Amino acid sequence: MESGHRKNPSNSIDAVQVSKMMIQVKDLTRSFRRHHALKGISFDIEKGVVGFLGPNGAGKSTTMKILSGCLAASSGSVSIVGYDVLIHPIRTRQSIGYMPETTPLDEDMRVGDYLRFRAGIKGVKSPRIRQRLDLVVEQCELQSVIDRRIGVLSKGFKQRVGLADAMIHDPPILILDEPTSGLDPNQIRSVRELIRQLGTQHTVLLSTHILQEIESTCDRAIILNQGRILLDDTIGSIQKKLGRTNFIRAVIDAPLPEVEKALLHLPHFLNLECSRTSDGFCEARISLRADNELNSVHRIAPQIARIVVEHHWDLIELQPQQRNLEDIFTELTHNQTGNNEAHPSAAKSN
Amino acid sequence: MNNFWLIWKKEMAGYLLSMTGHVIITLNAFLLGGCFTLLMEVLNLEPTDVPITEIFYDSFFFWILLFLGAPIITMKAFATEAARGTLDSLLATPVPESTIVLAKWAACLSFFLLTWLPWIGCMAVVYIIPVSPPPFHWVQWLSTAIGIVLIGSFFISMGCFFSALTQNQIMSSMATLGVSLLLFSLSFADRWSNPNQSFFHSMMAQLGMVRHMTDFVRGILDTRPIVFYSSATAVFLFATTQVLQAKRWKS
């Protein structure tokens, strides 16, 4: 499933909208010999924080490298602030702050010297370098290591130096490939907060494996799998579109087959999954349709409790839960993998 | 231009503040000093009218320094950066590839010339000794220096090219050294070629590095080798720029 955000430049209204687009990607493909990393993806990004989500090998890093100008596309077009990356490489690179996944840094340099050097080659004028340096050092909490050699820093600090490097020239677009990997929980929280702040004034495109990060940081998510876009929408819309936003988790001290048999009599539930917990209890996950009032959590939960009492079982836990992005992501990527396994020719023809 | 100086300064700092840089400078100073001392002792025993610049160039040490300097200095220019991944982040900045190549080449050449500074000191010591006739004319010294700069810049550009082609420092230095020695061996090819094959014979004679350097140390500034080394340097720098651009398509 690809984005429906394409614009027709021939239409005058759309042309105005096109000019507002910070990133425009159209029919982007990239092949590495016989491996097709990207199979014709298209999306547009205006302001805000957009999360790039996908399993390993989905094409996230390849897309980010192409956007940042580190890698050329096999076909398709990429525009950054209205300029094609192939025709205006210098202009587009000026507009982008790119933090690669592995954060390559000059380990022999001191943090301050490195950031000053990077600011200089990214076109920050000398009088402004000091001001920008002070700001990014404060934002990335690098004050304590500013005079230390990068080679001796911990992975978390190196990650933050990479983030500071991406931000040093105050670009309108930030492309961050797994910005929180290697950070401790407190640092993760502060970087997420920083990304949220940056998102108010910049366009931020970030990739991550941490689904909660997308939910807590991003306005929109693009889910990629096997070089294709599976889903491209706002976080709220994704949950609404799927129509199954809630489920109930019940932990019961009873034999699993009997619980399964009894819960199957619940009216209009969507899906039932029963499994054993490590403590030997039976854990049941009952998916519900949120658009059907009859099946709301408030109606189903008492019915489960009633069944437990009728059968003289012990109810350990009864917890209504909201479906999160992880459930949606797992479902989408599994479906895609399943479809491709079932119909290998389908993947080739697309 | 600002980007050129920023990258040049960073590269120079990388050489001057690293152990490798110090080892290269020390080794060069030791070899140049040792060679010079030996020459002085020989000249004390057998005085000669041949200018000292020519005697020095005839020595084994001169060519060793000329051949080994470029591969060792240039092997880290691009290969190490590519292996560390820092080349990608440099290529993601709004700096044209040509500026990156020129700045790195200029830094390598500057460091290469820095390692030859003891030679200037040795020549200065000989020059200020009041002997008659003087051991060399300052023009011979200057033309020798021009020869070292031209051949050095050619070898450095070739080293940059091979360094950009690979992520392996050893491969880069071996390729640079191998091609340098191959070109040097062309100096003797005219001896083996048939003089009746006039075109091939004269081409080999014109490519001879020894012949070029002989002219330089004698104070002869022929425009042909100057154009040859300058254009060969430009060709390798252009090729290096193309290699960097091609990396975007390959990687």
Overview of this protein structure:
The complex is a heterodimer of chains A (350) and B (251). Chain A is of the alpha/beta class. Chain A has two domains: 12-240, Rossmann fold; 246-322, Alpha-Beta Plaits (2-Layer Sandwich), CATH 3.30.70.3100. Helix content of chain A is 40%, strand content 27%. Chain A is built from 13 helices and 14 strands. In chain A, the strands form three sheets. In chain A, strands 6-7-8-3-9-10 form a six-stranded mixed sheet, sandwiched between helices. A four-stranded antiparallel sheet of chain A has the order 2-1-4-5. A four-stranded antiparallel sheet of chain A has the order 12-13-11-14, covered by helices on one side. In chain A, strand 12 (271-276) and strand 13 (282-288) form a beta hairpin. In chain A, helix 4 (111-121) crosses helix 5. The model of chain A is unreliable at 1-18 and 340-350 (pLDDT under 50). By secondary structure, chain B is mostly helical. Chain B has one domain (2-250). Chain B is built from 14 helices and no strands.
Quick overview:
The complex is a heterodimer of chains A (350) and B (251). Chain A has 350 residues and is of the alpha/beta class.
Measured distance between first and last alpha carbons of chain B = 29 Å
Number of helices of chain A: 13
Q: What top-tier CATH class of the largest domain in chain A fits best?
A: Alpha Beta
**Cα shape of chain B:** globular
Q: What is the number of strand segments of chain A?
A: 14
Structural class designation of chain B: mainly alpha
The helix-strand sequence of chain B is HHHHHHHHHHHHHH
Distance between the ends of chain A: 11 Å
Shape field of chain A:
elongated
Structural class of chain A: alpha/beta
Helix residue percentage of chain A: 40-55%
Sheet having the most strands of chain A:
6 strands, mixed
The largest contact between protein chains, plus residue counts on each side, is: A-B, 26 and 23 residues
Radius of gyration of chain B: 20 Å
What are the low-pLDDT stretches of chain A, counting only 5+ consecutive residues below 50? 1-18, 340-350
Helix content of chain B: over 70%
